[in-house]
Amino acid sequence: MHGTGGSGRSLINERFSGVLFGKGQLLDADKYFIILPDGIGHGKSSKPSDALRAHFPQYSYQDMVAAQYALVTKGLEVNHLRLVMGTSMGCMHTFMWAEAYPDFMDALMPLACLPVQIAGRNRAWRDLVIEAIRNDPQWNKGDYTTQPISGLRTAASLLLIAGSAPIQMQISLPTRDAADEFVQKYMQRQLEDLDANDLLYQVNASRDYDPSAGLEKIKAPLLQINSGDDFINPPELGIAEREIKRIKGGRFVLLPASEQTHGHGTHTWAAVWQQYLAQLLEASKSAP
Question: For residue 11, how far is the Cα from the chain centroid?
Fold first, then answer.
């Protein structure tokens, strides 16, 4: 399951599917049926920009997970999954799947999130994204005819910082001019692709997320992975280490920040953590 603003297709790349889905690889597509859903509000699923704009129903993570489950069980008529895995928002959805349907999967791998209510700095930057869009006069309560560029520019700036990888950026942008050029190209690309209502809805959908009360319900082996340079889920909070103790069969791995990690986006660089996926698949072979 993909992250905020992404789609199932966003996981089809050399960093992720190129490492995992090929012949002989851990999630060999010749061996497994791989389901890559577009969450509500994302990709080719229904979203505000289709027509309704801000009249589109407000959806939450609970709605998104319920729709995913309906897709699997009613649409594809699948009654059991070998693995449920997700990145970022998909990581949070993995915890929700684990609690809502504890007997439905053999293994769980949440990548780049925390199993608690979104609060502190994580909630603050999301609030800033939402407010930047809503406070732009061009947004017009969601009934804009042209994108509210000022609000989107601020939102895109926050997204850049939230997903940043300090070591990688220092390596790839070693001079002032290189960094300035990167920001200019990044902003141009984002402003061409982003829709204000879609982004607002996507970020706001996390408002009800809080699996902390039900962690003991999780039955399948679970291996959670975060990165030491993740701005969104900073390791110094110690939350993952604390909460994983409540999950029977749960394990947490913190990847030290290095030239191999990519900040929050490490979740998509499968070569960095595939050894742990191999361990999880091996350990869950005999799961009921």
Answer: 11
